[in-house]
């Protein structure tokens, strides 16, 4: 049986022959193979086995789309919207999505969700979400119905193939171990996965928090099963110059018991309804971590809890720093 030259690529990479693998893919791309163009794009995004080069990745994505690669089309939409490899351009991203939607049901679903949002021509919310103050200092606010039911479903579905047990690096050995604080499955929606729906939601989060979308880390989705929890913790990070100033939590479902968000020092417990968002300030007036914002996700007693979170830095944050493509 004839096989494609690309079938050899993974074997060459596994056997430590990256140069030979790259040569095969480049030859296939020169011959007009859409999958080869897409492979070169992803290698330039990941930075292995080719150096990370967002501009080159965009060029290969564009050529892959022109040949007819569906996955490349959605990735091109994401990078056009969030500025990966070129200035962010919402109108251009929307035009690309409209083109992709003509032949791809998934792109058509994304387009319907975006069209249902109340956005200006640049993709920003037409109005600021309304909030109720739960605590004044530290600043804790709830935004009822921040997301629609369809938007909640979209976020959960976007994470399904990425979910894995939460891990951290052991400071003693450097090895990856289960997170002793956050016992849950998690997924990070990196730049290439930030579809136009999620991009619009991230911009809505920025509007609600009075920050720029560039200050936000990648959206993280969490899934807690029975007995799982997020033990008391602060969201600030040790020894960083660009600290997490704000946290936005968004509750995606209500088919569970337990799992409330608890601020023990504030005597505040929140059980969000689907689509509700919770925003809180992590720092004191002098910019140091605020111990009053210690919080926990209480153990799940029954069912499964879905939540997403976006940590917002004090200054713009590089979305490619430590985030898988």
Brief characterization of the structure:
With 325 residues, the protein is α+β, with helices and mostly antiparallel strands. Helix content is 33%, strand content 22%. It has 2 domains: 5-110, Tetratricopeptide repeat domain (Serine Threonine Protein Phosphatase 5, Tetratricopeptide repeat, Alpha Horseshoe); 132-313, Jelly Rolls (Sandwich).
Could you please describe the fold and organization of this structure?
It is a single chain. The chain has helices at residues 9-14, 18-30, 34-46, 54-67, 70-82, 90-101, 105-116, 149-159, 196-209; strands spanning 132-135, 140-143, 164-165, 167-169, 176-178, 182-183, 185-189, 219-224, 229-233, 244-251, 256-258, 261-263, 268-270, 277-281, 295-297, 300-303, 305-313. The model has no long low-confidence stretch (mean pLDDT 94). By secondary structure, it is an alpha+beta fold. An 8-stranded antiparallel β-sheet has the order 1-2-14-10-17-8-7-3, with helices on one face. Strands 6-9-15-12-13 form a 5-stranded antiparallel β-sheet, with no helix packed on it. It has a two-stranded antiparallel sheet with strand order 4-5. It is globular and about 65 Å long. Helix 2 packs across helix 3 (34-46) and helix 5 (70-82) runs antiparallel to helix 6. It has 9 helices and 17 strands. The chain folds into 2 domains: 5-110, Serine Threonine Protein Phosphatase 5, Tetratricopeptide repeat, CATH 1.25.40; 132-313, Jelly Rolls, CATH 2.60.120. It comes from Sphingomonas arantia. InterPro entries: Oxoglu/Fe-dep_dioxygenase_dom, P4HA-like, Pro_4_hyd_alph, Pro_4_hyd_alph_FE2OG_OXY, TPR-like_helical_dom_sf.
